[in-house]
Amino acid sequence: MIGLVAIFMEGVVVQKHSEVDRRKRIAKRLLLLAALGMSGGCQTIGEARSDRLVSASEPVSKTVAESKVLAGSNPQVGVQQVGFDEWSLARETEPEPIAVTAPPEMNGAHDQDFTLVIEPQTLRDAMALEATMNEVEPSQEQVSSSLAAGSLSEDSPSANPVQQCGLTLSSVEAMALGTHPAIAEARARVAFSTGQAVQAGLPFNPVLQYQSDEIGNESSSGLHTVQLSQQFVTANKLEIAQQVQAHEAQRRRSELRMAELRVLTNVRSAFAVAIVAQRRAQIANQIVDLAEKSLSSVRDLLNAQEVSRVVWLQARVEAEQARITAENAATQLRANRRVLAAATGLQTLPADSLVGEVGEGLIETPWESLLAEITATSPEITAAGSALERARWSLRLACAQVTPNITGQIGVGVDASTDDTFASVGVSVPLPLWNRNQGNIRSARASIAEASAAIDRTRLSLEGRLASAAGRYQVAFERYRRLNDSVLPTSEETYQLSQRAFEAGETDYIQLLTIQRTLFNTRLSVLEAAAEARQAAAEIEGLLVTLDG
Hints:
Number of strands: 10
Oligomer: single chain
Helix content: 55-70%
Radius of gyration: 40 Å
Shape: elongated
């Protein structure tokens, strides 16, 4: 019994077995279109349109209760339709392929004179048609598998086996915040400054002293005294000193925040570059597969004397170039993953694939709102403000140190020669005659002027760095938007028209190859522009701490 496969497109036709050879030649010719190698644009790469995000598309499956009826019969057939979203396969506008299970009444011996095939109008149709011709009794699952194998979209399971699991940006950021040594170093500085603030507020310890005088005088053991002295801090110097160190600890906390933002910015930038490298490697691997299939198809056409040897040699060149491109892309991906691992603070990353959309969230933001937000939340300005407060409290401490501390002393003693007991009381105060802490007061005032100027300098530096980063973001975003909204659709339309012209014999292989290479380069340019915009956006989101002031 010969199994029947029905694939419904526009204009399903019923042909005799005598038409099969011609159909197979057409299929091989269309398979050649797939592997002209450098199109890459026949797959979804997950760009973001200006008005919405186009992520890795998900296959659309739906059940159709009724299907078209063949040659006078009207059976109710359950149809499993395997669809693709609007961005896959170079945004094909043709109807979606449908794999149909033939009704039982159509599997009789009287149907052996007929085979249901399609007019191969697209690349997917051709690949599905070739798969059905090479098998005697293909099942519905096999036909669906053939259709899926013809798709170049990244959302197909074979192209992207990791759909829901893998390394996301948030997971990599969490690892970086927990393991990066720069953050651990900044936290240690915060702990050190906090300890210094505690120590600065502690008073002096009392001093216990034993003293013996006149030993051996008149054959006696002399005078023996025990004294207890305490230095009393005046002018509230301990609280002022504690405030000085407390503001130093606050400055260290701002530096900790800067260290975290610096690590996150580096991670986000490295992640964007790595995920673009991963997409490029995926495209290159698929191009290699298609180029090898193209080489085989061109060889068959050459044997049938339908193409010249020049075309076959060109196909060999394109296949080898595709292999070189794939090897280079794999090498670059490994290097970018190492850079990402170093930015995360790890020796190596887990082997999982990176998951994310490099073009997600790319929007145009007004300059004024960016400047106001960064000025209000920048840890650099917070650190500069803490330094100014520390300088002000240092001046207060320098002025308070003019007032001397007072040392009090009490004691009790015994005279061994007379057995008399006596007590002693003493007070000592240094006299600020020549040293009134003039130099430290002058230095503290200079530190206040320096810290005030540092705040203004930091604001101006942030504004300049923001102008640079925002300019690079705007240039990359505009380039991404124009390529994605204008150049890429035009390239895809040109490719589709060239496909039809090649099928009709109105153009040659070389011209179609040039158009496909242009489409491939355009898609890579979209990815690279999105990555550049994402890197500039990461610097802005990181409050510009990675840029030199």
